[in-house]
Design goal:
heterodimer; A: two-stranded antiparallel ribbon; 34% helix; B: 680 residues; mainly beta; 4-stranded mixed sheet; 2 helices
Chain lengths: 307, 680
């Protein structure tokens, strides 16, 4: 194709693009062109819903320059046409799409997905545990929040359903969740995943290694439970036991290590510093007083993890 | 030249629509704030737990926020706790629907234990040498703190310019620097050493793909390199003066490639999700590098660690009728271990490389019985094959669950769920040639809870109650019971009750109240065997009485209770010119442990992980003017901890030299802060 032919082909394409852009612009703004379809325009909404409009005006959704509600009729882009609502004198949910519990969660989410579906983060929204358990977008996101603040207030918003995690995250031994250094979404994909507990990894083990790279090994001597699942010994959000352990040391270790000599020895209330038979297998850090390489040992000829 | 008008016309037609929109939508916005202030504390250095992940030391700090957009460009910059050890910065920006980027820097302190002591010099290095003539006199030791500072910085850029294609690149570096306690030693004595932490991990992640209404796919690659400045720790053994060596975390390289494919809008409104990934992590070490003596019969002096994992999964979601959703899934995960096998003369310390593969399949269904009832149920099968794990060569899990969700009473949602799990584990112990006089003979009697055969019952009950538009109440209860079957030695049973409740009451627009309560109980029982094969005859068979009173089966029962409550209030006064918040929390943990054996007398372990924490946070924000506000805050926390393992703590108990790690349990600390903020 020579240059002239290319340009001649380009011209009708440009004409087509121009026409489609103009027509798209008209269709995308029901506030201007859609009165006959029941659209009344944001100014009318504002007359009664002054507070809501004021908050909307501060949101990212109100920005004219992006492909969002402002370019598609403002309030009615999400709430639907308001003419009948006005005609009937208004009222909560009267002939208007409201984001409240009277409307099915999936329908509320569907409104948001009209624009946000193509976000690759939302790839598995339909199949994720939140959608399947009737958690909708507005359950976590404040749609009228000030620009930049639409992200859910983690972890509080998560705690409102996951009560056990709230309690765990405040315990004496914990990850830095309540300090806002690790957010729930640092580890979990709230918008849907097929991974166990919707974690952002192939499995929980790989997730832990993303921050604790020193535990990846590979070690000369492996500790099999460590290599299979961190959660055999640790709990992820918080624990009353040190190091987020599911039980105290030495009890946790002795549940598996019943061998000759000290692993099978009963350490009782006399084994502490001030007891009748103090033992360094019990007091202070118990087994870890000697067996420090518990996640894997890298010295030769030492399968007991003491070096 | 005659084509120029055509080109210009074409260009104008291309630019005009976009230009028109820009001109019509010239919205520019700038806002932000700058906050400076200071804090002063009392008692914050008494216990590391008070400042576990935060810096509450005396000093000046600041915050800032800037939010700017023009048309569809945006920039947001944020800095928190500037000047403190937990400071963080983030700069985000981009152009909506085209690209976005983020640069970040974050410091996370992890204070482990304050006021530790050591008789070594070279603390923080990989070589510890005794520097006092009296390693048994702690008053002469050097004081230091156990803490690790993590610094993470990097950037992310994401392109969606050519929709529906996307590309995301993330580069970051995580550095960890500090000290943590390391226990070492042996039968001759134990020593607690300050282990240097000088880690760096460089991560590079790239993913991209395509996303349409019907189909999406994503390819991802990850490369992560971990380095440790100290792969070994040399230390002088105070029990003889020899130089000993401990191996620390080895350097490693991790790589992963993955692909995801999602196909929507299939018949029955179905979605098919396929995922596959391959990952490999490698490390190496050698006897030459560590400087260890070469043991007799060692087959190789170098170790090349090589572990790869493969995951393949398919999930099929369907919505065949209005009331029914189904999920069918298959998942395969394989951990392959190609590391060097190290062998010795005699074989006692030979490596037995651990590997496993998991196969998982299941079916779940949600059926809406009517407008107010939903019934869910499912079956899950999981099979795990392990190599070199004789106590759990193969495990098969069969899990069933059922859940009923009911909302027939207005403003009440109730859920009742039950899960049953049966785990059947095959073992393969090679006891040929062993007799009860050999310690290894005992291995066939040990069932470890992570792989042991068991049945599990899990009951869940939850209520959500919304009596008023401004009042939410929630209550949930969970009971889990694991019964480990046919256990001779090991955990025989563990169970737990968990009860949680919360309430949120938005009384007026100027007063929000919320509270939560939690109670947890955990119980565990285990069987153990006290014996010492090889000395005087004691049998390694716990099921047979060998007639020796020193060999006996003993049992342990652990019981812990934990409860907590919290109250929060947010208030507005003077037409919200003054805003105040309050948060109060109390935690109490109380445990005990009993040991018993026929004919033996043991003292119960109590206190057993007993602690109380009381915390209070108050904050008031007063708007001086439209632009300036003043914040005044107060934090109080008191912690008491009682555990027999730490009561009467000594640095030099018999046969042991400790450093005081985690002995700084109790504290009563308070912090006050005052800041002024300018908003624009």
């Amino acid at each position: 194709m020579n240059r002239k032919n290319f340009i001649l082909c380009l011209l009708p394409l440009c004409l087509l693009l121009f026409a489609s852009t103009v027509s798209l612009g008209a269709a995308a703004n029901p506030g201007e062109g859609g009165l006959e379809n029941g659209f009344i325009g944001a100014e009318t909404c504002q007359e009664c819903h002054e507070e809501q409009y004021a908050s909307y005006a501060k949101t990212i959704h109100s920005r004219q320059a992006i492909k969002g509600p402002a370019a598609q009729g403002a309030c009615e882009a999400c709430h639907g046409p308001g003419a009948m609502h006005v005609e009937k004198g208004g009222g909560r949910g009267v002939d208007i799409f409201a984001f409240n519990d009277d409307v099915k969660a999936s329908d509320r989410s569907a409104r948001c997905l009209q624009c946000h579906q193509t976000n690759h983060d939302m790839d598995l929204w339909e199949v994720g545990a939140h959608n399947r358990n009737e958690v909708s977008c507005d359950s976590c996101h404040d749609l009228h929040a000030y620009s930049g603040e639409q992200r859910p207030n983690e972890p509080e918003i998560c705690f409102s359903c996951h009560r056990d995690v709230r309690v765990d995250a405040n315990k004496r031994s914990r990850h830095a969740i309540i300090e806002d250094k690790i957010s729930c979404s640092s580890c979990h994909q709230p918008h849907g995943s097929i991974s166990e507990h919707m974690v952002k990894a192939d499995d929980p083990q790989q997730l832990c290694y993303s921050c604790h790279a020193e535990k990846r090994g590979p070690f000369v001597y492996e500790h099999p439970p460590v290599e299979e699942n961190c959660r055999y010994c640790h709990t992820p959000h918080g624990s009353t036991n040190a190091k987020l352990l599911t039980e105290k040391v030495p009890n946790l270790c002795q549940d598996c290590h019943t061998w000759q000599r000290h692993p099978g020895t009963p350490y009782d209330g006399e084994s502490g510093f001030s007891g009748r038979s103090p033992s360094n297998r019990f007091f202070a850090r118990g087994c870890l007083n000697c067996h420090s390489a518990i996640h894997g040992g890298n010295t030769i000829e030492n399968h007991a993890f003491t070096r | 030249m005659k084509h120029k008008p055509i080109i210009l016309a074409a260009a104008l037609l291309l630019i005009l629509p976009a230009g028109t929109r820009c001109l019509a939508a010239d919205d520019t916005y700038l806002s932000g704030s700058v906050e400076v202030g200071g804090q002063i504390n009392d008692g914050a250095d008494e216990g590391a737990n008070f400042q576990m992940y935060r810096d509450l030391s005396d000093g000046v700090f600041g915050d800032f926020l800037i939010d700017y957009y023009k048309d569809n460009y945006f920039i947001r910059g944020e800095g928190e706790n500037v000047g403190l050890d937990d400071q963080s910065y983030e700069l985000k920006g981009g152009r909506y629907q085209k690209y976005k980027y983020s640069l970040f820097y974050d410091q996370l302190p992890h204070n482990l234990s304050f006021g530790a002591r050591s008789f070594y010099s070279g603390i923080g290095s990989g070589n510890l040498v005794i520097d006092t003539a009296s390693p048994n006199n702690p008053s002469t030791w050097t004081e230091f703190d156990y803490d690790i500072e993590t610094t993470q910085y990097g950037g992310v850029i994401e392109f969606t310019v050519v929709e529906p294609y996307f590309l995301k690149i993330k580069v970051d570096r995580q550095e960890k620097d500090g000290l943590k306690p390391l226990g070492s030693g042996g039968f001759a004595g134990a020593v607690e050493l300050p282990e240097p932490v000088d880690y760096a991990t460089n991560n590079f992640i790239i993913n991209g793909g395509y996303r349409s209404d019907q189909i999406s796919f994503k390819l991802e690659g990850i490369y992560s390199a971990f380095t440790n400045d100290n792969n070994y720790l040399d230390w002088t053994n105070p029990g003889g003066g020899a130089t000993e060596l401990n191996a620390l975390a080895p350097d490693n390289d991790y790589g992963r490639i993955g692909a995801d494919f999602t196909w929507r809008q299939l018949p029955w409104m179905s979605t098919l999700v396929l995922k596959g990934s391959y990952a490999q992590v490698t490390s190496d070490t050698s006897v030459e590098a560590s400087g260890e003596d070469i043991p007799a019969g060692l087959n190789t002096t170098t170790f090349d660690g090589d572990i790869s994992t493969t995951r393949l999964s398919a999930t099929y979601f369907s919505h065949p009728m209005d009331a029914l959703d189904t999920k069918l899934y298959l998942d395969y995960y394989d951990r392959n271990n190609d590391s060097t096998v190290i062998e010795y003369q005699g074989g006692g310390n030979d490596l037995h490389l651990f590997a496993y593969s998991k196969f998982n399949l299941g079916l779940e269904a949600d059926y809406r019985l009517n407008a107010t009832n939903k019934l869910s149920g499912g079956y899950d099968y999981r099979d795990i094959d392990r190599t070199n794990r004789p106590d759990g060569e193969n495990s098969s899990d069969n899990k069933l669950f059922i859940e009923l969700k009911n909302s027939w009473i207005d403003n009440v949602v109730a859920k009742l769920g039950y899960t049953y799990l049966n785990r059947d584990t095959d073992t393969f112990f090679d006891t040929i040639g062993l007799t009860p006089a050999d310690a290894a003979f005992i291995s066939q009697f040990i069932s470890r809870y992570d792989v042991a055969s068991k049945t599990m019952h899990d009951l869940e009950l939850a209520f959500e109650f919304y009596p008023l538009e401004s009042l939410d109440l929630g209550l949930s209860y969970n009971y889990v019971d694991n019964d480990y079957e046919d256990v001779v030695l090991g955990r025989t049973q563990d169970s737990g009750h968990q009860l949680y409740g919360d309430v949120m009451w938005r009384t007026t627009s100027r007063l929000n109240l919320s509270a939560f309560i939690g109670y947890e109980n955990y119980e565990a029982d285990s069987n153990h065997y006290n014996h010492r094969a090889g000395f005087e005859f004691q049998s390694a068979n716990p099921t047979v009485d060998d007639g020796n009173p020193d060999s006996f089966v003993w049992t342990q029962s652990i019981n812990t209770d934990f409860w907590t409550f919290g109250l929060m209030a947010e208030m507005g006064f003077m037409r919200d010119r003054l805003k105040a918040s309050l948060a109060f929390q109390y935690q109490d943990s109380d445990g005990d442990s009993d040991i018993s054996a026929p004919g033996e007398t043991f003292t119960p372990i109590d206190p057993f992980q007993d602690y109380e924490i009381t915390s209070l946070e108050l904050k008031g924000v007063y708007a001086l003017t439209e632009k300036f506000d003043l914040s005044l805050g107060y934090i109080y926390e008191k912690s008491t901890y009682k555990d027999l393992q730490y009561i009467g703590y000594e640095y030099t108990p018999p046969g042991t030299l400790l450093s005081g790690a985690y002995s700084d349990h109790d504290y009563e600390a308070q912090v006050g802060y005052l800041t002024i903020r300018y908003n624009f």
